Amino acid sequence: MTRRPREVDIEDAVDRYLRHRDPTARYTSFDYCFNHFQQRRSAVAGWDEPTGMEASCFHLGFYLASWGMLRGSSELLQRSARHLVPLVETVADAPAELWDLDLNRYDAESVDLIYRTSLEIRRALRPVEASDILVTKVMLGVFGCVPAFDTYFKKGFGVSTFNTGSLHLVGEFYRANAARIDGLREPTLDFTTGLPSSRLYTRAKVVDMVFFVEGGTPLGTTGGDGGDPSNAGARWQAQEGGDGSS
Fold first, then answer.
1. pLDDT digits (tens, 9 = 90+) for 160-189
2. What pLDDT, in 10s, does the model give residues 26-83?
3. Rg (CA), the chain
4. Would you say residue 146 lies in a domain?
5. CA–CA distance, 34 with 29 (Å, rounded to integer)
6. 129 with 48: CB under 8 angstroms?
7. Alpha carbons 174 and 97: distance in angstroms, whole number
8. Domain assignment of residue 226, yes or no
9. Confidence band, pLDDT 50/70/90 cuts, at residue 222
10. Is 168 helix (H, G, I), strand (E, B) or coil?
11. Residue 244 lies inside a defined structural domain of this protein
12. Does the residue 51 lie in any domain?
């Protein structure tokens, strides 16, 4: 059964996120990483190319560091950028359809592809025990096909786990708000010029912005739920029953 969309001010949340955007700001590392991988795709793993394997590892590593994946307790902090080589190889070998997959194409088959790819990424990061947060941040920063299921997103969206059930809920939320989300797809920033590029944020990235803010990130304060970001998500899930994390 289709769940009714949760009550969230999508435009306000995206505005709060983007008002902090700057070419040298921390979170713009996403733009540079995403641009790099999308421009080169299967060529990101080339050893003899100046924009190949080494550049890919550094782009991905700096993006993950900017987004909190190399903190003191992280296993990844104990590794050099070269640890990411098997991950970049896995990315380069990903099915072609994954590079263009976005929320407007979410169905049972595409959701299954996303989840299977997440397992391959997890394996590529061994012996680091990759969390759902790390895996989905990689997938967002490379493919842009799924929001990052970090603490803020899960609180804001009202799910507790990354799995096919929660991915279907993301797809349902998009379909209920497609025109609004599509209208908020701003260009990424280009590393060389610091100006907007010709590449738009994916729909999944827009939804990631919305619930990153709605979940209580220090970028801005949430509204409409007494400062408790979990209230909105719980209200949405309660309308149909279930927690969206099956």
1. 999 999 999 999 999 999 999 999 999 999
2. 999 999 999 999 999 888 888 877 789 999 999 999 999 999 998 877 898 999 999 9
3. 17
4. yes
5. 8
6. no
7. 19
8. yes
9. very low
10. helix
11. no
12. yes
